Amino acid sequence: MKTVQGLRTMVSKLLILPTTGTRTMADAVPAFYGFAGPRTPESGVPESGITEPGERRTFEAGSADATAARVVLGGAEVDLLALPSAIDLIAARALRKDTTPLAVASANLDHINHFGAGSRWASVLGGDSTVPEGAPSLEWLTLLDGAPLVSQAERLTGRHWPRLAGSDLIGPLLDVATSLNLSVGFLGGAREAQESLKERLGRERPGLILAGFWSPSREDLTDAEVSTGIAAEIAAAGVDILVVGLGKPRQELWIAEYGSLTGASVLLAFGAVVDFLAGRVKRAPEWVSSKGLEWAWRLALEPRRLARRYLLDGPPAYASLRINSSVIREQSEEQREQFVASAPVGFAPPPVGNRAFAPVGQPADVAVLVVTYNNAQDVDLLIESLRAEAADQWLRVIVADNGSSDGTLEALARHGDVISFATGGNLGYSGGINAAQQHCGDVNYLLVANPDLVIERGSVAALIRRQRNSKAGIVVPALLDEDGSIYPSLRREPSLTRAWADAVLGSHLPGRPAWLSEIDYDRESYQHAHPVEWATGAAMLIEAHLAEEIGPWDERFFLYSEETDLFRRARKAGARDWFEPAARMRHRRGGSGSSSALTALMAVNRVRYAEKHHRPASAAGFRGAAVLSEALRSYQHDHRPALRALLNKGSWDDLPHAVPATRKNDDGGPASAFPAGSIIIPAHNERAVIARSLRSLEPVAAAGTVEIFVVCNGCTDDTAEIARSFPGIRVVEIEQPSKTIAMDTGDSLATAWPRLYLDADVEVEPAAIEQLFRRLGQGDILAARPDSRYDTDGATALVRAFYRARGRMASTKSGLWGAGAFALTREARSRFGTFPPVQADDVFVDRHFSDAEKEIVACPPIKVHVPSNARTLVTVLGRTYRSNVQLLDYQANEGGSSGQSLLELLSSIRGLRTGVDAGVYVGFAVVSRLRKRPAKATTWERDESSRG
User: Options 3.40.50.20, 3.90.550.10, 3.90.700.10, 3.40.50.1980; which CATH number does 364-587 get?
Assistant: First the structure.
């Protein structure tokens, strides 16, 4: 469905009319419509009528120049035309049966309310977003209607444009249809009104071909099967012009979804035109319309039906009109090429009858990410429903198990092509998704799915089709309860007014205005595809490039609000989120369990979300709303702990959070989850970050089997005092400000193996340490490091591009360097003596082991903080390059080369966006190598922008 791109685009698509047949332009067509003048023998078109494609068209008839303009009024795109131009265009398109159908709507304040900026149906009438698969596209022509919009259009363009209401256009269009032998059908209106209209048209326009009348109920219009049948009936009747009078927004939504199936060349979304033509509703007098008071006239005639539209919805729409209006600038060819270049890459379809999932190493269309926790009874149903979906596209199914004790992993092991693994503990939903995402491989989409879902056939394909049609970043399906009813899963961005209204009203008054409710209860919202702000996280399809752009799920949200945060970050990155009702998934909603602790966590995480994204004063307002909500419900036992938690912020750490797994001894008693080992952390003036790093190690220290040494080398601040405040941490102070001497000192004190050498500004999950130590304990590798991710939150666009490119390079996924952490067995450590006096210690260690002797362990990734701005990045890279040169001088062994890195970079390019990232990477590399070290540089030249 394409929006008409101004009159230049429109005339280029107009027909060259045939010279024979019954549907050529008759000489009897009134001159008022712009078709006056002699016909040319070549085309059959009057000389003053339709121009050649590519020419700008100006009409002689009418009171105003008809040169078209396109504007955005209140967030809705509107085409500005004179009346003769509009009639000409619609009539010409009605004559053609082999072109894209034209849908015509009128834009007034009610249109802005439904289709403007921030509305529920914004963007629904643009692009191919709602056209069924296999159906032709639609073009939309949105005409100017309503006095406020006329005034705003005049302010934007500097000239007057006429109102073109459907009630003004319908008479001239019926005249043209009569003259050109075009058949007309009517959809909408009461049967009595249709009978009156049929009788009146037969009397006043006896030559008009009436193809049929259809008067479906509201329930019929919301039933996809019934609506498809109605469209088929209209197509069988041979309708050329279909007048759809269902009222806004229903008529536009119905046309968007089913109009292309009707076979009509033109579809007119003209509201109450059936009642006007039948004489059941009286038009306002001319003097009323000319004063812009037709709304008051109609309100006086139908106060019950129109009071909400004009008195409640009208003022916000008018405010949006004044704020969200502009002249449209056409998209350049370069922008269109960039957009196409960033589209997902298509892979070969699965073989007919396929029910297998894509193995590791093979490209796949979708990586399905599932987090389980005691879901042994659910996973078989989910996997079987996914196997049916695998017939349409290649799926890779990845399951991260968060410490199940009911045999979930054993149940998953029966499915040999499912990638399943234990995360090492209960990392929470976000942590589990992040762990699963490390195994995605080469895919176009990520489908995050709860384990207690059953996916209806064709749903994954429907989600992909919606993404490709609407260019959405995230697409969510319709969720069904076990009884088949629609679960209200769509949400609006949390705001103070919604938070306080929800606190007082809860689920009562579901029909209240959108600004007073976070949950979208409106049944109509679940019947049509449209953009949404966010939805419950049980299922969502995420475009892979977007997932890479916004980074991992925020693990501060153990459960609840993690999806709210993800959707917000996606919108901040410029992505749109869509709902697709054709994708349907049944959800038991029991996968996470239920308890008073989880109720408290839900309340607290709403406040955490507000504190992350809002100013302190606003966050306090959200907390107040949460306190009120739980206080009003404290008569229920489950809500009392939530109220206590909200009132005592110090208790938040006691709520459910990420914990390592626990094991049992042979006698059934609990045993530590952690194998023995040592962690050595060199620290030089790290007061800004040492607490952040040690806080993540508190569960490890509490296990009692891991030695943790913080070696403060040449510190002049209170790093040592901060480190000593953490239980289980041994602090050693030496005078020399040397990282390598600090690591040697830690080695001299440590007694356990393996040993993890950890930079002071690195955060690592306990489960990652456990899996790292266990992997090294298996004996087939000597050195390893945990998987890692770059934390680019708060970084500039150029810095993010640099690290996206760096993350795609193969060497970053195979070397021990670059993550601020590496671990060695006793045998590995014996390969060299003391650490040499070089800054590139991780590169030094990496070169002592072959690829077969070292490994990047698949575990919850450690967080590597990156510079926040370009200047700091150049400084850090300059230090890195000089450190490598220093190492080469020390070893006299080059190892890698710039040429090899360049080849890696080039091989990572898959499209325009990745190419741009690679260009940014090269630019930083060149500048950093050429930059001289400042004379007053500190010893480390470290990144201060990510500290604090």
Answer: 3.90.550.10
